[in-house]
């Protein structure tokens, strides 16, 4: 993104108040630093770092498959979504949010981590709503209508 100048374009659009939703690696790009294939600067729209799951966890990496959301705070993204709803994941890195108030949902997969974030008009989900059947379609609809 940076090499093509797209990072500045995204930041300009966000600064105008246009809603943005980062999905999976798109959520990871919202943060300040990512550690995949070396340390790289992210968009910096959210404070925090993207790190690899530890090899010492007792779960299979990458995190692939269905897991339950724990909704941490009310957010339009989760209107009509039950706490504990299942969504689909596929990733080896996760976000360590620098500001807990940005975290709107967590998941437990060997560790508890942020799987959905929001700061003003910037939203991110680590899971794949497009693969999460009715729950994912509702989340995408909620984003479009927010």
The best one-word shape is globular
Please give the order of strands in the largest beta sheet.
1-11-10-9-6
> Beta-strand level of the residues, as a percent range?
35-45%
**What is the CATH class name?**
Alpha Beta
In terms of quaternary structure, what is this?
single chain
Task: Tell me the Rg in angstroms.
Answer: 15 Å
Please estimate the helix content. Answer: 10-25%
- Structural class label: alpha+beta
What is the correct CATH architecture?
A: 3-Layer(aba) Sandwich
Q: Mind telling me the CATH superfamily name?
A: Class I glutamine amidotransferase (GATase) domain
Sequence stretches where pLDDT stays below 50 over 5 or more residues: none
Instruction: Spell out the helices and strands N to C.
Output: HEHEEEEEEEEEEH
- Mean pLDDT level: 95
Q: How many separate domains?
A: 1
Give the distance, in angstroms, between the N- and C-terminal Cα atoms: 26 Å
The CATH topology corresponds to: Rossmann fold
Provide a descriptive summary of the structure in words.
- The protein is of the alpha+beta class and 146 residues long.
- It has a single domain, classed as Rossmann fold.
- The chain is built from three helices and eleven strands.
- The strands form three sheets. It has a five-stranded mixed β-sheet. Strands 3-2-4-8 form a four-stranded mixed β-sheet. The protein has a two-stranded antiparallel sheet with strand order 5-7.
- The two termini are 26 Å apart.
- The mean pLDDT is 95.
